[in-house]
Amino acid sequence: MLSVLRVDAGSIITVRKDDFLTVSRMFPACYTARGWRPITPARHRYTRPVSTRQHPAPHDGRADPDTPQPPIDPSAVVHADDLASMGRRLGGLLVDWAIASLIGWAFLPGNSPFVLGVWALIQISLVSTIGASFGHAVFGMRVVRVSDGGLPGLLPTLVRTVLLALFIPGLVWGRDGRPAHDRVAGTAVVLLKAIRGRQAR
Fold it and tell me: Which of 50, 116, 123, 148 gets the highest tally of CB atoms within 10 A of its CB?
């Protein structure tokens, strides 16, 4: 594209559009006389750089199964992607409570403290010895020590059962994905398939 630039009253020169800024600087009289100012070409103007950073795709908050997750604690052997979800844990709790309620209805109908005692006995006797109650087994979970992945033992199981019976500790979850009763007892509820997968490696 061509532009016509008038230098004085008696001469006209023709320049390319891209050269207008250079010519106008050589002959300032062509625009200063009328108060004109040179226009900065678009290629010299500042434009905000376009970021080439690739943003991660949105996800539902769960860990990426293809990315190995770090241990939940520097001294732990249990990893974050081994932990059972809240839905599984709640399902297992309901199964155990249903069994305890049936036993309580059979022996002392309407006695809630007795049902709670049966539920606690199920938890302590089974979790401390085989690492899983009836509900844990139904939903494919195991209770382990976070330090070495072994059976929790009697004392940690007793501590987590008492705290879980108080109800409130079960609602307080830490950043590592464990509720308060597991954090205090040094235990974790993990997926059975995660344990088998690590043993097969």
Answer: 123
Contact 136, 191 (CB under 8 A): no
Return d(Cα 27, Cα 119) in angstroms, integer: 96
* Cβ burial, residue 176 (10 Å; 0-12/13-18/19+): middle
Q: pLDDT digits over 78-131, tens only? A: 888 899 999 999 999 999 999 999 999 999 998 999 999 999 999 999 999 999
Among residues 165, 166, 132, 152, the alpha carbon closest in space to that of 78 is found at: 152
Cα 104 from Cα 30, distance rounded (Å): 103
DSSP 29-71: HHHHTTT--PPPPGGGS--PPPP-PPPPPP--SSPPTTSPPPB
Which residue has 């109908």 as its token pair? 109
CA 6, CA 34: separation in Å to the nearest integer? Answer: 12
Q: Are 141 and 190 in contact (CB under 8 A)?
A: yes
Asked whether the beta carbons of 144 and 199 are under 8 A apart, the reply is no
Amino acid at 24: S
